[in-house]
Write a structure and sequence with these properties.
single chain, eleven-stranded mixed beta sheet, eight-stranded mixed beta sheet, 30% strand
């Protein structure tokens, strides 16, 4: 059964095209930023304002990766985070997190207005709601801590939603925007102020020397400082592939049957969790609904998640046709705080940012500002909060195995993929709707884990560290930097195809 809606994100599919060149030669800069998401472009613009030369390298297109496919809530309300931080660390850590994220929210709003970035920024109240009366105490405790940290936080008896709730926590005057348009607008400013951006340039290696050497297929960039802002670092020390865990989630955007839009942004604290907000595309208003998070590559039927999300949305909200649907990914940390900064004293002037736990808009902006300060030698007390070397579980990410084993190629329907065993090896087999069968090594090129077929996005997803490959084996995003290795179609499968065609 076909899934409803166009298989794309409403933000990225309707954003202006960008036409930055590929890197085709060697060049130098004070700072090279790998990744044109919210961390990378925030740091780039802040550093250009400080007078440094900056080059940004993006593997695909500006604004069309993880940030551009997010729910794009510009808020410091991250579900029930502040009581957790007080209890896990202390009130000072909770205060630092609040300050950093409030600063991120303020910086986005300031740049949107100062730079004239057209990205549909709107101020909205943010709500963490529950339908379970037994969870009201958790909301009340979160409100107590949030108020102590200076938030305008209020417990209300009912969230302004068209279904029954038991109560909610409201943060007043937060915001939402179109993330793809924001990043594209910020990139325009970066280049207008003297920065350089290369698109469709996948960095494959970063090596130390007198200056850092950032290598891609057709060129090299030398820099005093390197910022790796690639969701999960593609290079460097720190073992962040086992200190973080990939979190996938699905999103759908619906036309509204009702003329009355939702007023606010909403995150449920019940399980399974749902997130809601309004948005728009070229045809008009949309209601965005996000389903519960799951570990990337650990579900062999992602399509079923879309069907469940559609059913839940139709049962609870006045929606019409499903317009868009997409999968996105972030990385979780054990303590719910990102890692930002220099991961090793042995590699000075090398910076990373990862593990945003689904709240990368405000945290990512704060991360970019923090890295900019560190490069300029300025003190920033958020460094203690985001310390990339702080202690945590040694193996928070326990990895996983493919969920896509089939006995034989014949068991894979047209338009889908599966993993088969061949001797000691494993093959990822893609059967396009028509044409020849494609085969690849099923081993992710990052660390060798066996990939899972995503039957909704038609991708190969790594169940260990979250790399995503297209159906034909190309890297969509890392930490892998090399495509799945192409394998020859076995003669046996070729003979079967010929017999069927006769």
């Amino acid at each position: 059964m076909a899934l409803p809606g166009i298989a794309d994100c409403c933000w990225t599919a309707t954003a202006p095209e960008t036409t930055y060149p590929r890197l085709k030669k060697s060049a130098r800069a004070d700072v090279v930023v790998v990744g044109a998401g919210i961390v990378g472009l925030t740091a780039a613009y802040a550093l250009i304002r400080a007078g440094l030369t900056v080059t940004v390298v993006e593997a695909k297109s500006v604004g069309r990766q993880v940030t551009g496919r997010s729910s794009a809530k510009v808020t410091s309300q991250h579900s029930l985070i502040y009581r957790h931080l007080r209890d896990t660390f202390d009130i000072d850590t909770a205060r630092l997190y609040a300050e950093a994220n409030r600063a991120g929210v303020r910086q986005i709003s300031a740049w949107v207005h100062e730079l004239g970035i057209a990205c549909e920024l709107e101020h909205k109240d943010a709500y963490a709601y529950t339908c379970d009366k037994s969870l009201i105490a958790d909301i009340e405790k979160e409100a107590e801590v949030a108020c102590a940290l200076g938030f305008k936080a209020e417990v209300i008896a009912k969230a302004p939603l068209p279904f029954e709730t038991a109560g909610a926590l409201r943060f007043s005057n937060e915001a939402q925007f179109n993330p793809a348009r924001y990043l594209i607008g910020l990139a325009n400013v970066v280049t207008a102020k003297g920065g350089t951006i290369f698109e469709n340039t996948r960095v494959t290696k970063i090596e130390p020397g007198k200056r850092w050497q950032v290598k891609a297929e057709h060129g090299r960039l030398d820099a005093d400082h390197v910022i790796v802002a690639t969701n999960l670092p593609i290079a460097g020390a720190g073992n962040y592939d086992i200190r973080t865990r990939p979190r996938g989630h699905i999103a759908m955007a619906f036309r509204m049957n009702s003329a009355a839009p939702l007023e606010g942004m909403f995150i449920g604290i019940d399980q399974p969790t749902h997130s809601l907000r309004m948005g728009r595309d070229n045809e008009g208003p949309l209601l965005l609904a996000l389903g519960p998070a799951f570990v990337t590559g650990h579900d062999g039927d992602v399509a079923a998640r879309f069907r469940k999300l559609e059913t839940w949305t139709r049962n609870n909200l006045p929606v019409g046709s499903a317009a868009w649907r997409w999968f996105n990914e972030d990385y979780d940390t054990a303590d719910r705080v990102p890692y930002v900064g220099v991961p090793s004293k042995k590699a000075p002037r090398f910076y990373i940012a990862t593990g945003f736990n689904g709240w990368g808009i405000s945290n990512g902006t704060a991360a970019g500002l923090l890295i900019s300060d560190e490069i300029q030698g300025r003190s920033n007390h958020w460094a203690k909060l985001y310390d990339p070397n702080r202690r945590g579980p040694k193996k928070y990410n326990k990895g996983g195995d493919t969920q896509s084993y089939v006995r034989d190629i014949e068991d894979i329907p047209r338009g889908h993929g599966g993993v088969i065993r061949r001797g000691m090896g494993k093959l990822a087999v893609w059967k396009p709707p028509r044409g020849r069968i494609r085969m690849f090594s099923a081993s992710c090129t990052h660390a060798g884990c066996i990939v899972t077929w995503n039957n909704a996005d038609l991708t190969w997803d790594c169940p260990c560290h979250g790399s995503v490959f297209s159906a034909d084996g190309k890297v969509i995003h890392g930490p892998a930097v090399e495509p799945l290795a192409v394998k020859k179609t076995p003669k046996k499968a070729m003979r079967r195809r010929k017999r069927r065609s006769q």
